[in-house]
Specification:
single chain, 250 residues, alpha/beta, Alpha/beta knot, Trp Operon Repressor, Chain A, 2 domains, two-stranded antiparallel sheet, 32% helix, elongated, binds S-adenosylmethionine
Length: 250
């Protein structure tokens, strides 16, 4: 998968060289390209912002550098996939709530472009113009306001990338995660343990050491339901009718 990130702070993305994503980049599974928006400014101060039309506090990102940046970055199709159209992701607190379902869908795309806003956001005409050339999605990582789109982009890139074949050592681990489609669906993952089996007076639940796979699976399901009911009861209420068996509801 190719991912382009346009930002005024390319250094913010140093963590993308680490761990699973770093390895995926080295092995060629992930082709992440960082672009400094100021490359597409033409004044002495490399200005990317201006005062908001209509007045009010703060500054707004100017459309011209963004237009030129998107033209340059998206005009550069990946080798062997000339017809591939990128999908533009605009992180914004006013976007649709980003979930594991978005990550699963986006992990099937060949090419994503992230545009990191700063200040009061990007002039709205940039999204309008981009939508004439490619699919555009506004996504929020939560109901709070960050200083910029960089950390939101890191969250989304990491969530999407770990679903790509070959990124996780064991693909089953993503299928058993909280929220995973076809696995946990609307349930959170329950508690997990490793050795030693007894630590500071806390014991691993004996069923996990029993070797009885059916009993382990039933215990995990029960713990998932318990944790979901405790931490996110709205997930259980929103689950489609019949999703949980009679045994689950007892
Ligand atoms: N004035 C904007 C509003 O109230 O919707 C907030 C702008 S915020 C200070 C600057 C940038 O941070 C946004 O353009 C966006 O790129 C990013 N951002 C902030 N919160 C975010 C969130 N919850 N999800 C995704 N991106 C976010």
């Amino acid at each position: 998968m190719r991912i382009d990130i346009i930002t005024i702070f390319p250094d913010y993305f140093a963590p993308l060289d680490l761990s699973l994503l770093g390895k995926a980049r080295e092995s060629g599974i992930l082709d992440i390209r960082l672009h400094d928006l100021r490359t597409w400014t033409h004044d002495r101060h490399n200005t990317v912002d201006d005062t908001p039309c209509g007045g009010g506090p703060g500054m707004v990102m100017k459309p011209e550098p963004w237009g030129e940046a998107l033209d340059a970055v998206t005009g550069d199709a990946p080798a062997g996939a000339e017809e591939a159209t990128p999908r533009l992701i605009l992180p914004t607190p006013s976007g649709a709530g980003f979930t594991q379902k978005h990550a699963e869908r986006l992990s099937g795309e060949p090419w994503l472009v992230f545009a990191c806003g700063r200040y009061e956001g990007i002039d709205a005409r940039v999204a309008e113009e981009a939508a004439r050339h490619m699919p555009v999605e506004e996504l929020s990582i939560g109901d709070y306001v960050l200083a910029g789109g960089e950390s939101a982009t890191l969250v989304m890139v990491e969530t999407v990338s770990r679903l790509l074949p070959g990124v996780l050592g064991n693909t089953a681990s993503a299928q058993e995660d909280s929220f995973a489609s076809g696995g946990m669906d609307s349930l959170l993952e329950g508690p997990v343990y490793t050795r030693p089996t007894s630590w500071r007076g806390h014991d691993v639940p004996p069923v996990l050491l029993s070797g009885d796979h059916g009993a382990v699976e039933r215990w995990r399901r029960d713990e998932s339901l318990r944790k979901t009911a405790r931490n996110r009861p709205e997930l259980l209420r929103a689950a489609p009718e019949g999703e949980f068996g009679r045994r689950d509801q007892e």
